[in-house]
Amino acid sequence: MTKVETQEHKVPYGIIAILFIGAFVAILNETFLNVALPSIIDEFTVSPSKAQWLATGYMLINGILIPASAFFIQRFSNRAIFITAMGLFSLGTLLASLSPTFGVLIAARMIQASGSAIMMPLLMNVMLVAFPIEKRGQAMGVFGLVMIVAPALGPTLSGIIVEHYSWRMLFNIVLPFSILSLVYAIFKLKNFTPQRKIKLDVLSILLSSIGFGGLLYGFSVAGDLGWSNPQVYGTIIAGVIGVISLIIRQYRLEEPLLEFRIFKYPMFALSSAISIIISLALFSGMILVPIYIQMIRGFSPTEAGLLMLPGAIVMGIMSPISGRLFDKYGAKTLSIIGLLILLVTTYEFSKLSLTTSFAFVAILFSIRSFGMSMVNMPVMTNGLNQLPPQAYPHGTAMNNTLSQVSGAIGSALLVTVMNKRTEAKLEELTKGPIDESMIDTGSSAIDVQSQLVNHAMLNGINFSFFVSSLIIIAALILAFFIKRVPVNQPEAENNTKSK
User: Fold this and answer.
1) Rounded to the nearest 10 degrees, how much is the dihedral formed by the CA atoms of 290, 140, 178, 366?
2) What region, left, alpha or beta, does residue 232 occupy, with left being phi > 0 and alpha being psi -120 to 50 degrees?
3) Where does this one sit in the cell (predicted)?
4) Over residues 130-141, mean pLDDT
5) Hey, CA dihedral for 495, 477, 66, 211, is it positive or negative?
6) How many H helices and E strands in the chain?
7) Neighbours of 267 (CB within 10 A)
8) For 1-198, which CATH superfamily applies?
9) Are 333 and 364 within 8 A, CB to CB?
10) Does this model's pTM top 0.85?
């Protein structure tokens, strides 16, 4: 083990600040480009399915590299990891800004993703090592600013920028921050986390790439291609086989790439289950609300982004507060209250109409975000607190991997539910006698069809929110089984290392 350049109880706020800025910029970039896709399609004359690879490819690289983050964090210093990651991210950002062709832009996004993938696990691991267990709630609450607020701010900021400038401005704005963070790290960042000389198992990397990459890709394209497409179910089947093989392989290794034995800690296993369920339901708001606002109500992308901005601000304000409340009261009370708020607001979203006011949707979305801020980080922190220090890299890697995979599954599931319900409702409306209350008098045949499509899509969106409500009920039930990890628990006990 190398010498750690800090005292045991001295919190390295400077190191955390550098990592915080780098992670925020990297995670912000994950959702930054979504609103700009139409502009990119026009400039490079590519199909929407090809353009979607700018988002899908980014997520795929994250899904492949995040499971390996436990190895990198244990093997190399946080200084070397951060400088390498931020260097790759900055290079990708520069290439994306200057990209003359769509192929170069895709390559640039892949390079960006290879740098950003390690950011969240690295920052989370440093904070677990830096703060004593009784102060981690507040620290991880601040960390929630990166994990929750950055992706939420992405569409809002990009919508405003793209409406007035070229999509390249998105990368031009990010680039100075990433370069400054890189330069500062080169001169000021010191090592804080311990390292161990462990070997990288190449077969585990291969199985991880096939497993998590296959699942992420399959569920990501399911909404567009349909579940019956061989490209969808083929990659999902390959992903399931890959993950099962990966788990079997890890139990046979003395130094596993991803330690699955950490699920023997009950609070970590419970927190992971709740986090997976919340990620599944979270995308109902992130995806369905913009669809409702833009496609059914006719508002612009900027207006849709602004509608979601108060929710992002609420989460930004509440994340540190929820952390302090966690330190005082524990995760159980916070998560139950948060999940109840989440359940009620999600159910209310299942009753949207063609006349629901913009202000009402914005307020409801903000209250939903308030509930979300009381669940994610407290539950995750409580689970990580039960792990011994040597298992932190595996815990953070596992959490981030499960978040990526469950997010992809959730978005695909809810979009599929919406599409199937929309198709069924449209068939019902067009085959039977038309309800005159659904259409404007004097409308042409084309207008009538368009209005019926809107009614059918609204029905599909509402049903998807209803399904999300049922998913949240499952998380709420699990929350009653949360137990607070004692502050004086010996963190070094129950070593997860293979015997």
Assistant:
1) 20
2) alpha
3) Cell membrane
4) 73
5) positive
6) 21, 0
7) 20
8) MFS general substrate transporter like domains (1.20.1250.20)
9) no
10) no
- How far apart CA 440 and CA 350 sit, in angstroms, is 24
What tokens appear for 131 in the block?
């703060």
- Cα dist from 229 to 219, 222, 338, 350, 405, whole Å: 12, 8, 38, 29, 20
| CA distance linking residue 405 with residue 240, whole number of Å | 12
CA 216, CA 406: separation in Å to the nearest integer? Answer: 9
The pair of structure tokens assigned to 203 is 């077969």
DSSP class per residue in 146-178 = IIIIHHHHHHHHHHHHHHHS-THHHHHHHHHHH
Residue 448 burial (CB count, 10 A): 15
Q: How far is CA 117 from CA 81, 114, 349, in A?
A: 11, 6, 33
- pLDDT tens by residue, 451-464: 788 888 898 999 99
Q: How far apart are CA 463 and CA 457, in angstroms?
A: 10
Short-list 219, 250, 227, CA closest to 68: 250
CA–CA dist 360, 348 (Å, integer): 11
Residue 46 half-sphere exposure toward CB, CA atoms < 13 A: 19
Amino acid occupying residue 422: T
Two tokens, residue 322: 């929820």
Domain 262-499 has CATH 1.20.1560.10: no
Give the model confidence (pLDDT) of 469-488 as tens digits: 999 999 999 999 998 877 55
